[in-house]
Amino acid sequence: MSSQHVPLQTLTIPGLEQVYDQLATAIDVIDPAKTELFLVKLALMNANALADPTLFQAHIDAAIKDL
Q1: Alpha-carbon span 24 to 54, nearest angstrom
Q2: Is the pLDDT of residue 50 over 80?
């Protein structure tokens, strides 16, 4: 049985821009050799917050498109 996680709210465009800026700043501050580790840790923390492996896979699939 797969769970369907429906977010109670989504980010506005300014909210998405804020998150993008925060992520870019974090990537600029950390050691470039640790960027991949940082992104994996961040993804796992967000997957835990989602609490839905199926939704997380959907996010992976969407992010992989057009790379």
Answers
A1: 27
A2: yes
Residues for the chain: how many in total? Answer: 67
> Of 58, 50, 12, whose CA–CA distance to 42 is shortest?
50
The alpha-helical segments, DSSP class H, found in 30-65 are 35-50, 53-64
Contact between 42 and 48 (Cβ < 8 Å): no
Per-residue pLDDT tens over the stretch 1-21:
455 656 568 899 999 999 999
- Domain layout of the chain by residue ranges: 31-67
Average pLDDT, the chain: 91
Distance CA 10, CA 17 (A): 13
User: Residue 55 has which token pair?
Assistant: 């939704």
